[in-house]
Amino acid sequence: MLSKYRWWRDAVIYQVYVRSFLDSTGDGVGDLAGVRAGLPYLKKLGVDGIWLSPFYPSPQHDHGYDVADYRDVDPLFGDLAEFDLLMAAARRLGVKVLLDIVPNHCSSEHPAFRAALDAAPGSAARARFHFADGRGPEGAEPPNNWHAMFGGPAWTRVDDGQWYLHMFTPEQPDWNWRDPEVAADFESTLRFWLDRGVDGFRIDVAAGLFKHPDLPDSDDPEADARTRDSVNPLAWNQPEVHDVWRRWRAVCEEYTARDGRERLLVGEVSVPTAREHALYVRPDELHQAFFFDLLGAPWDADAFRKVISEAMQDIAGTGSTVTWVLNNHDQVRTVTRYGEPATEGSGLGAARARAAALLMLALPGAAYIYQGEELGLPEVVDLPDDVLTDPIFRRTGNRARIRDGCRVPLPWSGQASPFGFTSGVEGAKPWLPQPSYFAEYATDRALADTRSFWHLYRDGLQLRASLPQLGEGELRWLDSAPGVLAFTRGDGVVCAVNFGTAPAPAPVSGSPLLSSGPCPAGVLPGSTAAWWIGDL
Ligand code: GLC
User: Fold this and answer.
1) In this model, does residue 394 exceed pLDDT 90?
2) From the CB of 168, is ligand 1 less than 6 Å away?
3) Nearest to residue 241, comparing CAs of 275, 212, 218, 199?
4) Domains of the chain by range and CATH?
5) 370 lines ligand 1 (CB under 6 A)
6) Which of 53, 65, 174, 266 to mutate to test the pocket of ligand 1 (most atoms within 8 A of CB)?
7) Distance, CA of 509 to CA of 28 (rounded, Å)
8) Backbone conformation region of residue 367, classed left if phi is above 0, alpha if psi is from -120 to 50, else beta
9) Taking every annotated instance into account, which residue ranges of this chain make up the domain Glycosyl hydrolase family 13 catalytic (predicted)?
10) Is pTM, for the whole model, over 0.70?
């Protein structure tokens, strides 16, 4: 049965990558006080809520996705008192707050893992993780042939000869979710933050947690490392994980029953098909799961149409809505992905990224925006090797330069780095260097220029909030020229995107309500999307 509180069904959430958002202390790393200072900017943009990337105590081997204490704030980012101030400010502005929870693995510095290392093989402390004896003479080979997502074997040997499993880096041991204490401890963590007022959680690696109980060899051990997706069917997407999401949903419903505020669980779910994806958003499981196929689709009308149709068919059938995403902290930014040199801001990639944004905001369901997307930031592709911090780089022998280029700190103002990102300390340097061309993208310039990406997102969000058709209105495809996608939402709202470069006839004769680029009446120029109100 659908709950009557359903704010999340078509919500737009802004992902704050805390260390790159805004630095209030001048140490070059963004922090919670910086997020609080940036809230009015986000309110003005018009998002419903924010998702905060992990800020918990952590050795930062994977920028906080290696959690040493799930119920505190790393001094790098502030403290619990600052967190409470942020919550209070967000509540005053009516901005919801989601935290990032990392249940598949913790940090090798987590006290439970330290205790497991100190304990004997076969002990209760070791049972909270996946410790196993090796194979071959003297157990010198790993217990199975699995590879870690970020390269290298998924097992590391400890002093007494046993091995432990880590599907990411060796500093991120995987929890054993078949141990009931692990499940109980995570429920306490949920309650800890729900009691502090949060509106929900983004769940890291939500198709993870359980592994095949026998930990057998995989037929294709390199699949995960090769695809950067959790595709080893023995290590991911085990049926037991759904019980966890049912229990977490029940915890959320318990809080909703107390105060009427519906909490949101959104999962990072990477599974092979839309049909399997849909299982995660059944009515008693997660509210949302990121549908990454849109992000993975090439700039092509047929590819986009296929992805959208499959999502609508399989996910909408659960009673949930689709959760669209084009960018996040793990992916090359759209402006660059859709084909443009990183140092030019006004070419094809930017035009396509703007069109994709209007398309995403016109689709039924929820949408997530990654910080800097609203500024049209390109990927920083020329970072020198010695500043790269993504563990994937190190673990692939300095080959895969994947995730630093989208994590460069945001430009806020001014003509030179740090572009207002750090404050207070003379000569403070952002933790990743900002290129000089970031000056063009600074938020103050974006706000002052009505042709900016920022205004496109702000106008799109405003219209989305005021047109009820864009909420629960049905999507119906319209016939359109090759290379053009056109659809209606409910009564009277039409959206069309021209994926080609030549102009096409517009589906509606009048002027558009909003368009991603210049759009004269009756025409839809190449690499452009537009919204109209009108009779067909
Ligand atoms: C998720 C996060 C990514 C992190 C990984 C391991 O994919 O988005 O940033 O490295 O999980 O926690």
Assistant:
1) no
2) yes
3) 212
4) 9-106+180-213+225-456 (3.20.20.80), 111-165 (3.90.400.10), 474-533 (2.60.40.1180)
5) no
6) 65
7) 51
8) beta
9) 15-403
10) yes
